[in-house]
Write a structure and sequence with these properties.
The protein is α+β, with helices and mostly antiparallel strands. Helix content is 31%, strand content 20%. An 8-stranded antiparallel beta sheet has the order 3-4-5-6-7-8-9-10, with helices on one face. It has a two-stranded antiparallel ribbon with strand order 1-2. The longest helix is centred in the last third of the chain and has 22 residues. The N and C termini lie close together (3 Å).
Length: 323
């Protein structure tokens, strides 16, 4: 799923109203196109080179598998991440107006605007100026999780998982330690430069969680059911890993947060590897401003108003998962 004071937008009575400007940057009015304007003179080529090579198509993506294979996290093009604006809001929205006018004059349905890369480039340029640094946060977080799970001078977590699984299958009565004891030792020997220490044990009926604090915001949660190890979770400054496969140690689900603690991305490994973004409050307002401006120009050009209008959407109560 994928904003306008001073912008003219469609109202529910068939006309257009001027509503309060959401973005504090723009002050110039948004102009509505008219039939007698010559759209052949408009230039819809991107005005910046930053996103020319980006592919905005949604793809299945596993950042943890990517870093394991290449040592890098290649953030997909559909992810909005912080950029410095190269031009004003008015320039971007004026180009959007011209594009909407072109779509309307050539008979292209506004529902198919997502097929036009120019639209996606303008959307990214307009929104990303208020976006959090998703690229930086994802890179730092995945690297830290990868190091905590798979790297280290004295152990790797996937080896620890395999050791536990092997000992669980072949445990003898005379074994001095339970399999989980070896696992805890491995955890406490590694904490990105510092040893882990049990900070608390949380009990809830037959379930209990041992909380291991490694310092620097890194925490490991060991979850037990009826005294048997059940699962593990990892927490860092900008992430929470909620699912880890007990056999392979592979991350199956994770959430990512900005520095204010607002969730900005989620990852889930089910049938597909899905990484998706969750818009912040500021991004939601920009999204509404952008789509309302497009719809106003499109409707004014065709002389028709559609029943669906972004102007009437309360973005504060909408998740806008797919934008």
């Amino acid at each position: 799923m994928d904003k306008v004071s001073g912008y003219i937008v469609a109202n529910g009575q068939g006309g257009y109203d001027v509503i309060e400007k959401i973005s504090p940057i723009s002050t110039k009015p948004f102009t509505i196109p008219f039939w007698d304007e010559d759209i052949s003179k408009t230039d819809n080529a991107p005005k910046t080179d930053a996103n020319k090579s980006r592919d905005f198509t949604y793809i299945d993506y596993d950042p943890f598998k990517d870093i394991a294979k290449t040592g890098n996290v290649n953030v997909p093009g559909f992810i909005h991440t912080k950029t410095e604006p190269a031009r004003s809001d008015e320039e971007i929205l004026k180009e959007l107006e011209e594009l909407a006018k072109e779509h309307a004059r050539t008979g292209q349905s506004s529902n198919f605007r997502y097929d036009d890369k120019r639209f996606l480039e303008l959307r990214d340029e307009f929104i990303s100026s208020v976006s959090p640094d998703r690229e930086g946060i994802l890179n730092r977080s995945v690297n830290e999780v990868f190091e905590r799970l798979y790297q280290g001078e004295n152990y790797s977590m996937d080896t620890a998982f395999q050791q536990i699984d092997s000992q669980r299958k072949h445990k003898k009565e005379e074994d001095e330690k339970e399999p989980i004891d070896y696992f805890i030792e491995a955890l406490k020997n590694k904490g990105k430069g510092s040893s882990g220490a049990t900070s608390s044990i949380i009990k809830n009926g037959n379930y209990h969680t041992e909380v291991i604090d490694h310092g620097g915001g890194m925490i490991t949660y060991l979850n037990y059911a009826n005294g048997e190890f059940a699962s593990m979770n990892l927490k860092g400054n900008n992430y929470y890993v909620g699912g880890i496969d007990n056999n392979s140690g592979a991350v199956t689900s994770a959430e990512f947060f900005d520095d204010n603690g607002e969730k900005i991305m989620s990852f889930a490994r089910y049938d597909n590897n899905e990484l998706w973004q969750l818009p912040t409050k500021e991004e939601k307002l920009r999204i509404k401003e952008f789509y309302t401006a497009y719809d106003a120009a499109y409707d004014a050009t065709t002389g028709k108003q559609r029943a669906y209008s972004w102007q009437n959407i309360d973005v504060s109560s909408v998740d806008l998962w797919l934008w």
